[in-house]
């Protein structure tokens, strides 16, 4: 009998705190809190084997989708910087994904609520751990994207990190890659991201950008500039004549993006410019 697997065992005796099950050679405890229904002697039960909090092989009537050799999406429910992250596979005991299987930089580890595609494995001490899906496993999970998916918005989950970029699998099942030049910052392993498809490759995988489209970015920049003017009481000492360095320092955007934002605000009748200053336009 091995932790992480499903077996059929016979009920051989009652204990004050549960039942002992046997395969004829070895007994394991099914605690009464782990039994899904009433149990009787000589009954055969299908159970999942795991280690309890004291490391003893135990049984539960809960059959998780994640088993040794079987994968599923699991939610991260805890993070321990000196150990790894804990995931919920449906048992009362959470499963550890070791720090050895996580990014070297812990700020790229999954947060609570992130999702990982996992199976279970045993270490050399027969302890049960979570194991991340490999590239081949994720490829088997995926489907190819059609060419007409170009420029479509997508959501996806990050499953692998490299220096050159991040690999995701989208909600539709497409395998995607986010080059480092197509993001502001590196997403976490297990993080759900929103982006858009910028290329569909021959094998059906997609390249993804996390940057908004130019007109969407213009709206974002315009709102940022407008809120700044409002926050200063309706006037600011910046205009389309301001130096690029001043704009970069104050708004973290290029001179071109700043001018486009001002142009949109003026077109919308929200601001006016006079003598190097920008003012909220009076209604």
TrEMBL record:
<dbReference type="GO" id="GO:0003676">
    <property type="term" value="F:nucleic acid binding"/>
</dbReference>
<dbReference type="Pfam" id="PF17783">
    <property type="entry name" value="WHD_CvfB"/>
</dbReference>
<dbReference type="InterPro" id="IPR014464">
    <property type="entry name" value="CvfB_fam"/>
</dbReference>
<dbReference type="InterPro" id="IPR003029">
    <property type="entry name" value="S1_domain"/>
</dbReference>
<dbReference type="InterPro" id="IPR048587">
    <property type="entry name" value="CvfB_S1_3rd"/>
</dbReference>
<dbReference type="InterPro" id="IPR036388">
    <property type="entry name" value="WH-like_DNA-bd_sf"/>
</dbReference>
<dbReference type="InterPro" id="IPR048588">
    <property type="entry name" value="CvfB_S1_2nd"/>
</dbReference>
<dbReference type="InterPro" id="IPR039566">
    <property type="entry name" value="CvfB_S1_st"/>
</dbReference>
<protein>
    <submittedName>
        <fullName>Nucleic acid-binding protein</fullName>
    </submittedName>
</protein>
<comment type="similarity">
    <text>Belongs to the CvfB family.</text>
</comment>
<feature type="domain" description="S1 motif">
    <location>
        <begin position="151"/>
        <end position="213"/>
    </location>
</feature>
<dbReference type="Pfam" id="PF13509">
    <property type="entry name" value="S1_2"/>
</dbReference>
<dbReference type="Pfam" id="PF21191">
    <property type="entry name" value="CvfB_1st"/>
</dbReference>
<dbReference type="InterPro" id="IPR040764">
    <property type="entry name" value="CvfB_WH"/>
</dbReference>
<dbReference type="InterPro" id="IPR012340">
    <property type="entry name" value="NA-bd_OB-fold"/>
</dbReference>
<dbReference type="Pfam" id="PF21543">
    <property type="entry name" value="CvfB_2nd"/>
</dbReference>
